[in-house]
Amino acid sequence: MLCTRTSLCFLFVLTVTTTSYGQFTDASGELGFSGGGKAAFGDYNNDGFVDLYTGKLWRNENGKRFVEVTDSGVGGGEAIWGDYDNDGNLDLFTFTGVGALYKNRGDGKFDTIEFPELPTKNSRGAVWIDINNDSLLDLYVGGYEIWQQTVHPDVVYLNKGQGVFEEVWRSPENYSTRGVTAADYNGDGFVDVYVSNYRLQPNFLWKNNHKNGFEDVAAQSKSHGIPDSVIEYTGGIKYPVCGHTIGSCFSDLNNDGLIDLFVGNFSHPRPGQDHPQFLQNGGPEKDFVFQDRSKSAGLEWQESYASPTIGDFNNDGIQDLFLTTVYAVGSGSIRNYPVLYQGKGNWAFENITVLQKLNDLPPTYQAAWADIDNDGDLDLCTAGKLFRNDNPLTGKWLKIRLSGDGKRANKSGIGSTVRIKVSDNIMTRHVESGTGEGNQNDLTLHFGFGALEANSISAEVTWPGNYKQTTHGLNLNTTHTIHLD
Fold first, then answer.
1. Which of 301, 329, 345, 454 is most buried (CB neighbours < 10 A)?
2. Residue 138 in contact with residue 156, Cβ under 8 Å?
3. Which residues, in sequence order, are bridge partners of residue 421?
């Protein structure tokens, strides 16, 4: 699926083989990891091993142990990593409650930085974004609700430098935001934001207006849901019935170089409620309108789908999907379980949850990918556990860490996109600071290549602002750091 006809054969054999063996081992006890809330992966101490925040800070010790850090100065709550001051150290922003910003001192400790009190009250998700391409990371924070009483606004804070953040935008109408994710889906050099709304509300695709604000283009891009009759909700808002969306993901799901969408809808067994959607980005030729590819995808219905995360766990070059559930038992006493779907290509996915030893997991909102032991395959944090990917039969791989110069692009590389062309495929990954509902995958980008015969490849980086840079001779089965020239 990635190079010559000969290589296609090898890739097919590899795919069949990897689905025959359980790849994942619950290594939580061995690693010393226990529980926690939503997962945010980030290498806060720059030792080359990705750490983890789940309401508690866990330091990764060479992929062998995760040690809870109790004296870091970081409080609890749900959070995302990003280097807001471009000093080379990942900082932490807590988006729950009134909000909190923690500056990484570089010695394992964090200082609390003064930050405006959030109007979002009980946020379920946020993202770091550079809304104006000044190399300083800004914040988009989603606002949720108090059911049948009030709905809170979404808000954007502009990073003014020196640890000062100023509110520059609020959502014009208050909807019940759950997950928030971001990517430059239309390739104009400015990051855009997709908001997963609950209570059967349409979702928002906030297109960056290049003026520290957004225009909602969800309806015209067909990413808002499948509208039905109009209803009213708390706060006097009216909207066409769509879905109970909890979390969504941006990702190139068909290797065409365009960033697609997966929308993870919770749906009661009543008509008029959207099921999860696989949405293909139509690109510039179709004005970036999304096409619904859900019918061919083969995702089995469950009532309480919640937080999705996307990654190529078996290194075959095709993105896979892990999706959690809210309930253990849904309507009609039907069991609900988190699921793992392997991407088969051409918008087809296969349920391999049992084969990969991830069956019978409890309800959870926690779901994020990272290579915790630096062995070249993605491991999974979910349901309060760390599942280590232990199958040695996965294909070739490449990992890329991006480092901006702190002047044209942020040091974390957040908002950047990397494309690798192999035969007729353009494999695309983007550096994201939020996925699903309030989780964060590792900022290091991960590519799988199956049985690709080449030993090195070239990668094109598009930094925020559309700075483009091509790096040649990247060896496979290796982690590379690419700095902005």
1. 345
2. yes
3. 426
Which of 202, 313, 219 minimizes the C-alpha distance to 265?
202
Average pLDDT over residues 217-242: 96
In the block, tokens 């226990």 appear at 34
Q: Give the mean pLDDT of 396-411.
A: 97
**Would you say the pTM of this structure is higher than 0.70?**
yes
pLDDT mean over 112-138: 97
- Separation CA 356–CA 439 (nearest Å): 22
- Nearest alpha carbon to residue 186 among 229, 156, 221, 162: 221
pLDDT-derived band at 246, boundaries 50, 70, 90: very high
C-alpha span between 96 and 45 (Å, rounded): 24
* CA distance to 306, 324, 474, per residue, from 327 (Å): 9, 9, 44
Beta bridge partners of 440: 40
Positive or negative torsion for Cα 35, 39, 42, 48: positive
Average pLDDT over residues 268-278: 92
Cβ neighbors of 295 (< 8 A, separation 6 or more) are none
CB 121 within 8 A of CB 143: yes
Tokens at residue 444, please? 């290091």
